Each structure stands twice: as structure tokens, then as C-alpha cells.
Amino acid sequence: MPCLSDEGKMKEVKHYYYLCTFILFVILWSAVPVFSHPISFTDVQGNHISITKRPLRVVSLVPGITEIIFRIGAGDAVKAVTHYDTYPPETVHKTVVGGFFSPSLKAIEAIQPDVIFLSGLHKEVRKRFEKKCQLINLDAKSVSDIYRNIDLLGKIFNRQKQAETLIEDIRNELQIVAGKVERIPESKRKRVIRLMGRDPVMTPGDDSFQNEYIRIAGGIPPKLNKKGNIVPVTKEEWIRFNPQIVYGCGGDREAVRKFFDQPGWKDVEAVKNGKIFYFPCDLTCRASTRAGYFVSWLSARIYENEFSREEVQVFKDHIFKSRHFDLDLNYIEDARIVYSRIHDFVNKTLIVEFKAPLSIVSSLEGQRKHIISVGNHYSPPPCWALGHKLGLKKIRERVYQVIGKSEDKVSFIFTGADMDNLAVKQKRFKDMKVYALVTAGVKSNAVRMSVDEGRFYEPGTINIILLTNMKLSQRAMTRAIISVTEAKTAALQDFDIRSSCTPLIHQATGTGTDNIIVVEGKGSKIDNAGGHTKMGELIAKAVYEAVQEAVYKQNGMVFRRNVFQRLKDRKISGFGLISVCECNVRRYNLIKAFEEILLQPRYAGFIESSFAISDDYEKGLVNDLGFFELWCSDMAEEIAGEKIGTTKDLIADKDMPRVLRMALNSLLNGLYVRIK
User: pLDDT tens across 46-58, in order?
Assistant: First the structure.
């Protein structure tokens, strides 16, 4: 090989330097977001908008838009939301400016926003702020509108790549549903109606995104020749359409109770066959980033018999991704979350592999020996109805087949809480170490044992896997289950998680489908894991923290959640709370004033205090409410600005606990006198 001269060497070094610089420039450029400002567009109200720089102080009054902003990674720009904005969990940390229908103008002004995202209903907001900041209306009436909004917000917040990925994810979900539905003959397609409102019965208009959801899910929506977000349905139209499936959200149960035992209303196929389903309101009522998630769930409910058959599947069951994480225990071979498609829907399985077989205790399977791996399997909502139809045994067999496990060597528990929301907590003392691996969902089937009836609910579930670097005896493993259970219950009660059956009066102690696995571990032998032992202490602390973190990740609940969320936990809302008013006080005005006054810490604190007093009063720990009556009277007159002679009962719910009734009535009476 010929030698280079000094000059040649210098040229080669320079060439190499320039090449490296160019490569580094390309790498850095690809990592930097593409800035696209200024951005000009026309919103749905026909207003020409020009955004010259990325917004920094955003108030979002539309939950679907809030969701998009957070999902594309721009949540830092959002400074305030309504109390209806509950997804993703990070929204819980934002300032609340009231409800969707009547946000507080004063609270919005305090934020000093540079951009407000609003809807066509926010006429007062537009009037107050149209000359102060940028107002943008991105109401969506179709899935294509959702894509448009995601793309536009990606450009506004310099998150184009994230927006493109999000759109692609939604499209893929909807394409899979379409592929499954294609395999169902047209003659077997079902008539589906979305129930809305209470009196009269209401449904989305023909041009609503909700009817598009039904069509994509393979259903046949009604065609009433009526347009709008919500339109009335007459009894004649109801009978003529003869729905085979009716669905709504939680607030629609009242309409079901009121109308569906009446002639005509009860005489359609859906009511006769009990095909009335309920979904979370933040899915049914929003054109949001979870369109694919909800349409998949809806379609699986409509066609649960068809979807349970393999010939309807678009894909064969298979694993498509794994995500590993570390557990610092010398007997662990591997810990990972496996992503698979089962029934075409994404399932997620936590798998912890051991280097050698171990004994375990499972609350689902009892005591087992020679186990080489334990795990926690998540089935998504579209699989729930299919799972109920197949039964746990067949579900377990199918999951094990997909992930390549043998039933005699592994022990798994099963959940409806997303495995991406897994909480892992470690606690240690000297050489002693404990891990708690927890998933938790508490909104659908939280119960208070000893009080609530045994009923079947869609899975929420708190699942806990306990691992330690000590060797637990059989006695210690079974005793550890008590320590785990007590810590779990303490976490729920300190969080004030409410029973799904009796939320007005009871805290939850768990959910109806909780399970625990305790692994014996390797190391020094431990014969007791009770409350007086150091092992019991570490178990309890790890579980307590992991349960609360998992509840936050899954349900967006934190210690210092606002009073609106605390009311929702008890199934109390402004629209359902207040009875029809008298005289010249409109119910809407009273609801608006009620939501606005709760933005003031003094009155929010008063209601929050009533929660604790009410619970203790219902338990019999507080007997004399004389002090509380005086407090309520003072609050009412303070709000009214004058003495109040006779108070009115403005609470619609006749079963409201006494203390809560007194507290809420005091605020409402003060407002009633002030605004009448």
C-alpha cells in the first residue's frame, strides 16, 4: 500500500472531518422538529386563522382537542381545561376553568391565554376574548375531521411526526374493524342506535360522527332526516327503526329506566333481548384520538358471536413486539411485556421468567410448585365480551398458545387494565428487597366488601405480583397475601376511591376481580411476612405506592384531584344534581353559577369537607349535625349576600345522603337567592 505524503494526509484528514460534520448535521437535523410557522387556515366557523409561532399559553375548552394536544406531546402548552377533560391522565394537573357548557370567563382571563380552543356553543367566550387572543373552533363531525384536526394541531405545535403516527394508528385500528365486518354478510348486519338524553329520547343527527362510528363498526344507524349533534326520536320513529342494539353512556341509564318499560318503547328487539350496552362517556360523546379504540369495542359488542369465530379474523394470533425491563433479582431470567394480536385486537402480557422453577401462591390458582414464569395478561375492551362468551379456561389456553407457554409450568392472572400502565415499585432494608408489580383499574367494578352485592362487572381489576430476594416459606407466602391486601385497601381509602355500587356512601376496599401472585424467591429464609415484620412493612409500602401509581396511570386519579372529579367519583354532576327550579331562576343559570362557585377554594373546600363528614355520619361515627347545619346556613347566606328565611330543597336525587344534601343545598340556595 503506497504511503501518503504529509499534504495527502492533511487532505484525507480534512475530507474525513467534512464527512463527519455532514453526517452529524444530518443526524441532528433529523432529530429536530420541522418548524412550519407561520400557519394559515380556516376553522369550521369560517374564521381565517394565522399562527405565527407555537402557542405557549393554551386554554382548551373542548376535551377532544385537549386529548389530541396531549397525545401529540404538546401538553406543556395547555394551561387550563374544563372538568370534563380527564384523558390522558396528565390533564389532572392542569387548572380547571369550569365545565364545557359554561366555563368561567373570569377563570379563563386569569390564565392570559394566547390561544383558546372552543366550540360553536361557546358564544360568551367568543364575545369576551375575540379581540384579546386567538380563538380556534375545530368541531369535528366525522372521522376525516379527526384526522384533519390531528394534522393541523401537529403543525401548530411543531409535532408533525407525532401527529402522523397518531393518524396512522387510528387508521390501522379502523381498517382492522372494517376487515372483520367485511366477513359478515349484509343480511346479518344489525340496526344500531345511540341513545342520548332523557326526556324526550334523543339520538345523534344523521350527519353526526357518532353515526359514522356505527357504520364503521358494521352497524346500520337510523336515518331520521334530521341533522345536528342531538335530535329527538319519536315513539313512531323508534318502533319503525326497531333497533337490535341500543348503546349509551352512564348518564343515559335514566332514559332506559324511564322509557323502556313503556308500550312501544319496550317492544323493539334490542329491549326484548337485553341488547342495551353502556360505554364510558368520554368515548361515546367525543370525536377524539380514541376513535379506533371505541369503534373496535362497539363492533365487538354488536357482533360478539361473529367475532368469537376464527374465520372472521383478519390476522392469525401472533406476537409482534416485546418490551424488556429490569428487575434486580438474581433468580430472574427476563422480565418483559409482550404485545400480541388475539381476535385481531392488541393484547399485552407481562411475563417474568425464572432461571429455575419456584413455588408460588396465587389467589386465582392456589399454591403451585415448579413454576418457571408468572405473568399478568391484559385483554382490551373489544375482547371482554368475547372472553365472557369463551370463559376463563379457553382464554387462558389461547393466551398461553400465543405466547408459547405451557399451562403446567406457568401461573398468570388476567386484567382489563392496560399493561402499559404497569407500576413497578421496589422497597429495601439492608439486604432485604421487595418488588410490587401492579396494574389497577377502579372505575368500573370497585366494591366495598361486606356491603356491596356480588355482581359481575366488566373487568377493572387490581392485579399484584410480589417478588423478593428472600426465600419465603409457605407460611410467609400466604401471610404476605394479607399484607398485600391490607396495603391495597389502605391505598384505595387514602385515595378516596368510591364503590361502584354505592359511591355516595362507601369507599371501596378493592375491585370484584382482584388477584395476587406471591413468588417464594431465593435467598435467606423468611418465615413471616405479617404487619410486625420488616418483610411485611416492605411489602405493604411497595404495594401501597404501586397501587396508587397504577390507578393514576389507568384512571388519571391523584390525591389532590379537584372537587369536580371528587363529585364525579360519587356520580354527582350539575345536570343530574339540580331539580327543576321555580320562579324566574332558570335551571341552566343555576348549574352555571354552581360550577363557577366551585372554582373558588373556599367553597370547594367546604364541599370536600362534607365528603369526609358524610362518610363518618353514614358509619355512625358522627351523631350530632348541629354544627354542620350552622356551617351550611352561614355558607348559604354568605353566597346570597342576605339572610335566607326558608331554604328550598333543590336536589333532584331523593337518595342523596343527608350531609351531602345539606352541603349542596346550602350552596344552591345561596346562588338561587343571589340570581333570582
Answer: 999 999 999 999 9
